[in-house]
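Predict structure. Chain length: 428.
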Amino acid sequence: MHGRSGSSYAILRSYILRQFLVSLLVAFLFFFFIFFINQLLLFAQRILLKNVNVLSVMKLVGLSIPQIMLYTIPFSTLSAAAMVIGDLSERNEILALRASGIPLRKMFAPIAVCALLLAVGTFLVADILVPYSNQRFRTIYAQLMRDLPTLEIEPYAVNRVGDIVLVTGNVTDDNIGPLVLFDTAQGSTNQVISASGGSITLMDLETFLYRLELQDPVILATDRNALDDFTMAEAKEMIYYLDFSSQVSRFTDVTPTQLSTRDLLSAIALRAGDQEREEMARMASLRTLERQVSDLMRTITVQDQTIDPSLVATITSLQQDIQRIKTRQGINFYLQYYRAELHKKFALSFSCFVLVFITFPLSFVRLKHGRLFGFGLSLVVASFYWFLLFFAQTKILDFPANPGFLIWGPNAVVAIIAFFLLVRTRRV
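Prediction complete.
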């Protein structure tokens, strides 16, 4: 009897697992395609139209895949669970299981185990593949910048390079056609340089500093403090230096999202030390102000004379400063940011496991077009979860406490809703 029961459960688990994996593949391809197309369009704007060799483009696209998978895997897991349970409910297979006395937890178990394994896989992607792929991405992109200096310059367009605005004509390889350069750096002098052409040469690959050699330049310099004064000069050649680090940072900067857990913990320890020193300085300032107020108050108490209004004003001002220091929240931006990203690495991975629980109440509902309904529900839940996570990230600087409770908030909300729905539907 026990052997037959165990065999039945094995068949059930195998059937559920097979259905789940097929649905997971379909959902993964759907979400992956959406995120991948968005990334591909980003590359098309900057890279594909620059005659970069196909192999380098494919490498860059491939190295961006781990970042895409961080969101693709959790949402695919949710969609797969919803589609499987919705399909089983539509075909009355869940009703048959319940009528046979088979507890539904036997059906839920394979989905939950797979979701837990996918959560571990998502964490490994976030903690290993993403940092590695970002490092390789930076290396390859730097090589492209070395081989094609005009990679970040669009032809017949207005290009901004740091404080420089560059209006260009035709751009081929390392040569630029007629161009006009506006130097908008903060200062009293403005410069406008026009040239019949120019060529760009890499000077320093680490800082992305380039040398722009201008042909037949005409320089117009004006003073912001004296609008009637200007200086004009001409030359056969001119050398101008361009700093592309701000442009390249959009693609190559290492953000906290792309750091490993070990690196994040090191950064958090460093920023925590900074915050501790800032807090010590704040308390020292507070004690100094309180001592000054105390000394002034003793002066008023000891001297039996008319109180000087200026003395009262000084004490009032000092008390206001004390109150501002006491109420000022000592929030370190980078400390909060790194802490939030550390918790996000775990919370987003664990969401694979949490999100599937909100699909279990579907097993107690009669559905038509169950697979389609399940997929639609997963899109709604995924959007809701994404909104909560985005909202939590915007609030990490509003509280001086560890932002972990905000980042884990979406998981907690989804878990509470899933528990409530599961209890309610079982009673219906």
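Summary: The first strand starts at residue 158 and ends at 161.
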